[in-house]
Amino acid sequence: MSIRRMASKWLLALAVFWPVLLLAAPANLVAAHFAQIHGHPGLVLDFSAPVEHRIFTLGNPNRVVIDVDNARLATALPEGQGVVKDLRSGVHDRTGMRLVLDLTARAIPRSQLQPKGAGSELLVSLYADKPTAATQPVLTAASAVPQTGRPIVVAIDAGHGGIDSGARGPHGILEKTITLQIARRLAALVARHPGFKPFLTRTGDYYLSLRQRIDLARAAHADIFISIHCDASHDHYADGATVYALSTHGATSEQARLLAERENKSDLLGGVNLSDKSNMLASVLLDLSQTATIGASLDVGGRVAHQLSRLGPMHRDDVQQAAFVVLKSPDIPSILVETDYITNPHEARLLLTSHYQQKVADAILGGVTNYFDQYPPAGTELAMLKARKQRSLAAAGGAQDSADYGVADRSKGNR
Ligand SMILES: [Zn+2]
318 alpha carbon to ligand 1 midpoint, in Å? Predict the structure, then answer.
């Protein structure tokens, strides 16, 4: 085709599609108000149509920025209150809307988008960004929860985000994108599983330090913490999944040590220095509770690895141990799943498909529920169900015992 004909075809295509792009009606922000969301201060935004959004934080001064594509302000914004000093709006990317929340203190935003009528409701909650609670006595988080059959909270941590893209695969695939997609699928599965409740540490493409991830999970009273990553190697043939738990002394393998270094670097990217905290944590790590937590992490990790091994090759069959910062909660069993190699062209292709992502999420859920079926934490719905089952089994077993005696008595009588 000649350049001129090609150009005219392009112009024709533009002429046909451009009006469609221009005519897509913007979503109106029709209501905005402050509310408590899951016990945290937050903002409820109602849009007249489904929207796409991004949320991120800025420092000096502390701000939360919410960008909504193809949307405009159609209501008055409320006056600032609590941690939100002020609220401003502007135009972003020509057709989008940008809301800026000026904060009185650092906060970590979490957003949740849900359909509401013909439109959608965007919930933005603000979590206080407080120092790590690692020095608090163990089990404080669990005992603070009322003992009335609570759900088991599964904290799902999508690795990387924002300026930290993680590993890169062929065709510009980014680890941070894949991990969030798998995390969302896993959260949806957990939400549908009776007795379980998901909690996503990261709900969009923004940066979270490793400490913030742990703190968010702790604030949500997580019973387990699962960090999702994709592996990377200069060797494009390297393949398979690996599951990690924390090690107290040294890593299982040199490879694990190198990987821990790479994943832990995320914090340096955000300018957060971990060296002071590591020392404090080091003492906590010696605590018996940590040893018990690592034991639980190895157990649940083994079950997840077993489920993953049914999907394809494993890079390592056994749960590996490494000093990942993100696994260092002294009282929450924590595992890190390197799903596959994003640098392996075959696995990268798989990781991009919703079908395979769903299988990975299914496998992780299988391992986790399998573990909690056996060891339901005290006070959970699952623990109560199990206790009831055992009581009825014991009652049936008692009846069985007397029946046995009956037989024995008869045999005696026959002698
Ligand atoms: Zn990673």
Answer: 19
Evaluated on CA atoms 209, 213, 215, 219, the torsion sign reads positive
Rounded to the nearest 10°, the torsion over CA 170, 171, 177, 182 is -60
Ligand 1 mean position to 385 CA, how many Å? 37
Taking alpha carbons only, the member of 260, 257, 239 closest to residue 340 is 239
- pTM beyond 0.70: the answer is no
Domain architecture of the chain: domains with CATH: 24-128 (2.60.40.3500), 140-374 (3.40.630.40)
- How many A from CA of 223 to the centre of ligand 1? 22
Structure confidence by residue, pLDDT tens digits, 80-112: 888 898 888 888 778 888 888 888 888 888 888
- Residue 125 Cα to ligand 1 midpoint, Å, equals 26
Only one residue has tokens 């991004």, namely 54
- Please write the tens of the pLDDT for every residue from 282-323: 343 334 456 677 888 889 999 999 999 998 888 888 888 777
Read out DSSP for 311-335? Answer: TS-BS-SSPEEE--GGG--SSS-EE
Q: Ligand 1 centre from 165 Cα, in Å?
A: 9
DSSP labels for 186-197?
HHHHHHHSTTEE
Q: How far is the CA of 349 from the centre of ligand 1 (A)?
A: 18
Which helix or strand (DSSP H or E) is residue 41 part of?
strand 40-47
